[in-house]
Amino acid sequence: MTLRYFLRQNEKHIKSLTNLSLFIAAIYSLPASAAPEVHYEQCKQPFSYKGNQYKGTTNKDNGNTQWCYLKKPIDGSSWGNVREETIPRQITASGNQCSATSQYASETFHGCSTLTYGDFWCYTDSSGTNREDCHSDDQATGFLSHIQPKENELIQRVAVGSCFKTQGTMSQTMSRIIEAKPDLFMWLGDNIYADTTSMNVMQDKYDNKKRNSDYRNFLDANIPVLATWDDHDFGANNAGNNYSKRKESQQQFLRHFDIPKSDIRYSQQEGIYSAVMQGPSGKKVHSIMLDARYFRSPTFRNYGTCQGDNSTVLGDTQWAWLEKELAKPSQIKIIASGIQVLPPLHRKRRLSSYCAYGNGQKFNTAINRLNEDNASGTSYESWAEIPQQREKLLRLAQQAINSGKTKHIIFVSGDQHWGELLEKSIPASPTYGAQATVYEITASGFGQNWPYDIANPNRLRIWADDKGDGNYNKACKFPFKASGTTYDRCITQGQNTPWCYTEVDSRGAGVDGAWGNCAPEGADIPTGQVGKVPTNLSRVSTADRHIINKSGSNYGQIDIDWANGTIKLSLQTETQEITSTIINF
Asked: What is the distance between the alpha carbons of residues 462 and 466, in angstroms, rounded to a whole number?
């Protein structure tokens, strides 16, 4: 390799040489073939040489031939000449491919090197002008890995959660998930709280999560995982396409969730969206993980330049992908989004303050077509902040149901630090077909809650009978006024059985005679059956039985009974199933 190296390795032989000409001939007879020819897979990675490290190969001190140190010696040689056609292309932190070779000073290397700059880098162009840091290597970390879902597995239980912090009742909640043995777990965003443009900081926070003993127990349970992100693990609070490190953040996300290096999201796809179809024929569950961050337009002016009617959540490429996914047949589709889908627009701020407002025409039309012109929902982030895009998503879901591509669509979301069960009846449309009902589980978070009043008229309906006749087919009207007080839950005023008004006047007051007893656990209702009703509602919720925002933690669960054709949607706390509903399919 070098004269000094050769002399050291051949000291005894050199001393035995009596003819200088033989010594000189020995020096100049060190051809590249003196070391074995090897496949790149036989190379030790990374390896060090003369104070630099390599993830790949180099021709340093070896003429024009690429070489590496070997994992195991071959014929006594610790290094080998590498067949260049076997050397894979490395990936940069931004997701670009390294150039086939990088030339620096008098050296040519394949892959990445720490030459001069300290961190692994490569050129991404043949001219050697665009230098990028390479993708972080997580080898030899000793971390347990996330298990990837398999297409042939029957799905009977899916658990979902978000907003992970190692505090409060997180530990008990993780233990309950492990005990529940779901066939699939979906991480719905804010999987760490990075809030940074430093990928070193982000990687450390991801790694610290894997170091946590409760999370190690989760990984050790071998529960298959799918994931999407939200703002805090994407990189910045409420960020979208204005975040400067989204490409690099994508690489950190893929690394943390142990996505195989063959996945197109490493180098061929912007955004982390993905989908998987699981189960045998007639029992297929289609999980669709949306990326509501990478392409999203600013929602308010302080996040960037408003785009009015051109505002997007998913971006053109992801929308086209989603339409193709929704056209695939399955019995059940679960669509994951970091932010909530079904709550309507929050109306207690100027509508023109929303970036998507434009001149207001398309903005308001999208809301009115969904029969939500007078509704007001959560003031926190949701799809409703771009109503045109929300209507598009709901209409595509409606079309999938009406075209027979699926029987039920269940959205799952995180972000809010509370748990919630929601439903929305999408009005009939000449284009998208008959009225269709979709559901949503919001599950958020671990060791976190938000015990405040949260407006949402699209929360799961509570059904009542007609003045105690036992036929629970009338929806309670929340909020309603009774004796001058406004209620957003069933009450026992005047009787022992919880009841509600089923009609209200223009001022929100209950209409005399239009009342009924609220459906108890196990009661038949138009969509199926009532599941669990909280027995300690005031201790876990600020509103009705379908929002849980006082418990120490919460996560969501979907239980599918294929034999009986039912789906149970539930919210779980650190101690129990707290509320649920059962729908037929």
From this structure: 13
